[in-house]
Design a protein that fits this description.
Layout: E1 5-10, H1 20-37, E2 41-44, H2 58-68, E3 73-76, E4 79-80, H3 86-99, E5 104-109, H4 114-119, H5 127-142, E6 147-150, E7 155-159, E8 172-176, H6 181-189, E9 192-195, H7 201-220, E10 230-238, H8 242-262, H9 276-284, E11 291-294, H10 296-310, E12 315-319, H11 326-344, H12 349-360, H13 366-377, H14 380-392, H15 404-408
Parallel strand pairs: 1-2, 1-12, 2-3, 3-5, 4-5, 5-8, 8-9, 9-10, 10-11, 10-12
Antiparallel strand pairs: 6-7
Helix pairs in contact: 1-2, 1-11, 2-3, 3-5, 6-7, 8-9, 10-11
Length: about 400
Amino acid sequence: MARLKFGAFLAPHHPIGEHPMLQLRSDLKFAQQLDELGFDEFWCGEHHSTGWEVIASPELFLAAAAERTHRIRLGTGVVSLPYHHPFNVAQRMVQLDHMSGGRVIFGSGPGALPSDAYMLGIDPMTQRDRQDEAIGVIKRLFAGERVTHESDWFTLKDARLQLFPLQEDMPFAVASQVSPSGMTLAGKYGAGVLSIGSMSTQGLLALPTQWKFAEESAAKHGQTVDRKNWRVVMTWHIAETREQARKEAGEGLMRWHNEYNVGTLMRPGAVAYGSPDEAVDQTAFVEGAASVIGTPDDLVKSIRDLYQLSGGFGTVIGFAHDWANREATARSWDLVARYVIPEVNGLLEGYRTSRQYVIDHRESFERAGAAVMNKIMSHEGAAAALQETMRARTATTGGHTPDLEKAKGGGK
């Protein structure tokens, strides 16, 4: 299994009730925490309605995050292209790339919330075609071309950017849910993929087929796609024990599901949970569950299973949520960084191999102890001190320390 990158996707999904200014500041601290913990990517979205998803401009938010972070890559997850003139999107992304020191990933989508498109007077039937059209124009602008383009929703006349991306080739990613449209679009442009639909059981099962859509589309358009640029979104809450994780996540999970998925979005087939325990059981402990509520070991197993199911991908993206309180949520991400990432990526194998080698070859190291003992016994003062050492029974010793009890007994 190839090493994986790890990141987070902040839609965000925040329950209504907290001061918006403080919530945004908290989200920026979250980005800073992930950077300090060594996560590879941080994504945030664009939404304009529902009251729960409150970041209207991912570029604006990520510019602030760039000032608080140092190495983590910053992805727009996503810019809803049908809502914007493509030239303005290109300019904002280029500016963000420079402001972040070349850490931007340009993620795009057609727009996730029907209520957003409705307010803007956009026909949902046009959104995916407009995303496609906009990507084609933006890629040409990034490449330094002078573009003239007449469309039914925007116009460009001899347009050229006056500033180009800091990165020689700014990474692209396309959002994909359960339908094939996102994957086929990624294939058309040789872009990466942000699989958001994998948060559902249906989306998980569709992953192997989804990637085939990308490959087929890439072949059709003379492009290539690489699984290392495939980002799969998972949901989790991690604690030291399953019982603790259940206790921390239950009430917030039930509220998120009942108030947002059922009460606000009215997702087809979604039914309200009757208790926090039911919410946890139905989310994380049913056949084919798409979420993990448990220990670091549980998440390691789930990631490895998903990797095998999908055929392989490059980055695990954790979906940020408010199931638990702020302290428990921060600890959950800390546990992922400290225990899940190194286990998945084999970073501890050298430690374990070295330890076992010392255990298995102990007899080979006895000569080191004999050499120390020889020097001690040949010196009258050191021999006398040996008796005191044996009485004190020093707690911490090196691997070469002789067996004092064995020496006292004459080596028997």
